[in-house]
Amino acid sequence: MGPTWFTALSKEFDKPYFLKLKKFISTERQSHTIYPSIDNIYSWSRLTPLENVKVVILGQDPYHDVGQAHGLSFSVLPPTKVPGSLKNIYKQIKTDYPSFVPPSTGDLTPLAEAGVLWLNTSLTVRAHSATSHSNKGWEEFTKQALKCVERRERGVVFMAWGLPAQKTINRIGVNETRHLVLRSAHPSPLSAYRGFLGNSHFRLANEWLTEKYGPDGVIDWEILSSSDRDS
C-alpha cells in the first residue's frame, strides 16, 4: 500500500472486520485463484497518493477473468482487449474532448498518476465468480478510504456511475458544498444509453477544477490518447 494511504488507513488494520477479511482472503487463496494478484490489490494507493487525488471514479467489483484486474476500477492491462464499459468511457471522453483518440488498450495508469482515483468498492474477487468477495469487509475498508478523501480541505470531484456508486457516495456523506458529485447511469453496455453517454462528466469535472484551482488543477483526460501513448 502506498505510504500516504497506509498512514491514513492504519487504524482499520486491527479492527475486527479487517482481521476477518484477511482471514477470508487467506482461506480463499488456498483453494481458488483470486484477482487481482496480491501485489496489485492496492495499486490504486501507490499510483494515486491521497494528497494527489483530484477525481474519484468508483467501480464495484474487480474484473474476474484472466489478465483483467490490476487494482484500478475499469482498467485492464494489454494485451487484454478493452471492456465494454471502458469503451463507453472512451466514447464520452471523446464527446467532451473531440481531439481525444481512444487508445487500443485499457490501461488507465496514466490517469491514476495524474490524480484520478480509480477505486472499486470491493478489492478482490474469486476467478470467474462475479461479486464473490462482496460483503466480506472490503466495502467498509473502501468506505473509510473515501472518507479520507472527503475529509480533505481540498475539494475533489466524485463521479458516481450507477445506483451502487451513488449509494456509496450517500453513505459516506460527501459534503457537496466542498466537493462536486457527478451522478449518472453506469457506462456498462447495458445501461450507458440510459444517461451515461452524454453526461459530460469529464468536461464538467475540469470546468469545476479550473474554477477552484486554475488551469493547473485539471485532469488531462487526453493523456490516454493513442497518439500520446504511441509516441
UniProtKB/TrEMBL annotation:
Its EC number is 3.2.2.27. This is Uracil-DNA glycosylase. GO terms for cellular component: mitochondrion; nucleus. Keywords: DNA damage, DNA repair, Hydrolase, Mitochondrion, Nucleus. Residues 46-209 form the Uracil-DNA glycosylase-like domain. HAMAP family: UDG. It is found in: Mitochondrion; Nucleus. It catalyses: Hydrolyzes single-stranded DNA or mismatched double-stranded DNA and polynucleotides, releasing free uracil. One of its GO terms (molecular function) is uracil DNA N-glycosylase activity. The keyword DNA repair applies. The keyword Transferase does not apply. It is an enzyme of class 3 (hydrolase). GO terms for biological process: base-excision repair, AP site formation via deaminated base removal. PANTHER family: URACIL-DNA GLYCOSYLASE. Excises uracil residues from the DNA which can arise as a result of misincorporation of dUMP residues by DNA polymerase or due to deamination of cytosine. InterPro entries: UDG_fam1, Ura-DNA_Glyclase_AS, Uracil-DNA_glycosylase-like, Uracil-DNA_glycosylase-like_sf. Belongs to the uracil-DNA glycosylase (UDG) superfamily. UNG family. The active site is at D61 (proton acceptor).
